[in-house]
Amino acid sequence: MVILIAFATFISTYIGGLFALKFKDKLHLVLGFSAGAVISVAFFDLIPEAIHLAEGVYDAETIIKFTAIGFLVYLILDRAVFFHAHHADKEHEHEAHLSHHKRGVLGAGSLALHSFLDGVAIGLAFQVSIAVGTVVAVAVLIHDFSDGINTVNMILRNSGGHVAARKWLLVVALAPIAGAVSTLFFTLSQDTLAIILAVFAGFFLYIGATDLIPESHHAHPKLITTIMTLIGVLVLYVAIQFAHV
């Protein structure tokens, strides 16, 4: 049962990525939507779930602190390790290309780890009960479509080609299956999972606020781009709320 649901997340993620590849000529609109989706998942899914899982161990303030730590860790990786650069002259064009490539790998890699944890969440939820497992599975299936879009956008946005985008899409799509399978061999305490989710919420907030939103608006500073971001927030919010009904 768990493995079948994890395989369904693979399909959902991969379809989302193919959608992004097909409509790459409208990338600014897809980027705008993705930005809203990423931020929505952080605010309305990861953080609330982390607070719920940490209940009785950590208070909400502590969870938010871990989210801030995630944001700052990603900031350090982006600026100090992966050399974030938006502009470069011809002399540094090659270095800029490598910089963008590394940022794409960092972003896609974080999505892969998040997707792995999605699979872990599904497996652990079914260890609690079928009812809890079903609710978690529905939530994961809904936003994994957005994960596929975000993975492709992260690679294309940072000087990656179709081949690299498809490779990373496959990695991210397979990650939930690996996560679900791993739960057959271990258990993870709820408070530990809560901290991990909070940190990844910080990652996602950074990706959305400092990369996807500025880039989508910089290339096409039009009202429709902002509207797409708001639509991304709304769609994921409604989907997440529906999944938890």
What does this structure look like?
- This protein has helices at 2-22, 27-53, 60-81, 93-128, 130-157, 162-182, 190-219, 223-243.
- By secondary structure, the chain is an all-alpha fold.
- Helices cover 84% and strands 0% of the residues.
- The chain has one domain (2-243).
- It contains 8 helices and no strands.
- Helix 2 runs antiparallel to helix 5 and helix 5 runs antiparallel to helix 8 (223-243).
- Mean pLDDT is 80; it is low at 83-97.
Proportion of residues in helical segments: over 70%
Number of DSSP helical runs:
8
Task: Count structural domains.
Answer: 1
Low-confidence stretches: 83-97
For the residues shown, what is the average pLDDT? 80
What's the multimeric state? Answer: single chain
**Annotation, overall tally of beta strands:** 0
C-alpha end-to-end distance:
21 Å
How big is the Rg? 17 Å
What is the strand content?
under 5%
Series of H and E elements = HHHHHHHH
The gross shape turns out to be globular
Which structural category fits the helices and strands?
A: mainly alpha
Features:
single chain, 245 residues, mainly alpha, 8 helices
Write the layout of secondary structure elements.
Layout: H1 2-22, H2 27-53, H3 60-81, H4 93-128, H5 130-157, H6 162-182, H7 190-219, H8 223-243
How is this structure best summarized?
With 245 residues, the chain is mainly alpha-helical.
